[in-house]
Amino acid sequence: MRQIIYKFFMGMLIVVLTGCTDRIELEDATLIVTLGLDLDEHNNLVVFEKSPIFSREVKKNTEHHDVQSSTVEQSYTNLDSVVAGSTRTGKTQLLLISKRLLQRKEILPYLDALYRDPKNSTNLRIIAIDGPVSEVVNFELKNKPRLSIYLSKLIDSSSLRHITSKVTLRKFHYMMVEPGITPFISEIKKEKEELRVLGVTLLNDKGYYRTSLNLQETELLDLLRNNQKASYSFTIPVKMLGSNKKNISILVKPQKRNITTNYQHGLPQFDIEIKVVGNITERTFQMNLEKKGNKRKLEAMIENEINKLMAALIKKLQRHQVDPIGLGLYVRAYHYNKWKAMNKPWAEIFAKSSIRFQSQVEIKNIGVIK
């Protein structure tokens, strides 16, 4: 009986203690919380890292380094030669990629090390940088949390307001390998003494940079993608009789999105209908909206403006042969035989497709002021 109990406890100790074999003290580790990828003037890969310092003997609470290397995995070895602690990547929160790299190199091979190691976080946020990555990594924020925390919160809150999109490493991999959609990531830029969200960066199916969307275009894209995390805020110009253009701001909530697909002359045809209800938050002109006719007239003006903005956005997407909406998923779902018979990448077919958009706006609340 004693031998059985002894063997049981020894077995439990072996099982429990195996998780402590790679234990390391925080003071002896360099936790890379921000990772950056850029190209130098000779198009060689430069890897940047920023990590916190756990010591009371130093004034700064972070350190940053950059090394030139052929791959991301090789850069960890090069970083070990300049940092005091052992490099650890499991706590990485941000991956910053310069627009220069996205324009010149296929991005997915550079991310292989991040996907292949199970200790790496797949929830890190991928962000495109309009400008050198060094400007962001070396930027010392004043009266704000450290860079990894501040940028994570900035991207998350901006995503909730639909002015950018939070794209994690896992989500980016899905968009890269899914043929029915082209990838997109957040885009920011350092301007003077602040970091500013610009919108989103659109990539082709190989991960090369194609174009960027500004804040309003990003909001429209989110509406097309049926992202219902929060309401949308639009400021729309309207033209009143006998006056110059005025503006109205409206907070809208999508109620229904319907996408129908057909084929005509060998190409897909999409009809997108979106119904939204909204509340007026600002109005710079006089109009009696208690009259049903005036209210419907204003709704028609808003619908017309949204339709024009959407048409311009769709035309831009087709011109650059990118489909961040994911319309290819609908073709595969409803016209699978035609999808299998395609002999060109979906983005090229998307550029030639017929896409019609129609909005339906209903004003629910005009505010407390008549």
UniProtKB/TrEMBL annotation:
Domain of life where this protein originates: Bacteria
KW Signal (keyword) present: yes
Keywords: Germination, Lipoprotein, Membrane, Palmitate, Signal
Gene3D superfamilies, alphabetized: Nutrient germinant receptor protein C, domain 3
Membrane topology: Lipid-anchor
Record bears the keyword RNA-binding: no
GO annotation, biological process: spore germination
Gene Ontology terms: cellular component: membrane
PROSITE patterns linked to this entry: PROKAR_LIPOPROTEIN
InterPro entries linked: GerAC_N, Spore_GerAC-like, Spore_GerAC-like_C, Spore_GerAC_C_sf
PANTHER family to which the protein is assigned, alphabetical: SPORE GERMINATION PROTEIN B3
Family: Belongs to the GerABKC lipoprotein family.
The name this protein goes by in its record: Ger(X)C family spore germination protein
Organism the protein comes from: Brevibacillus laterosporus
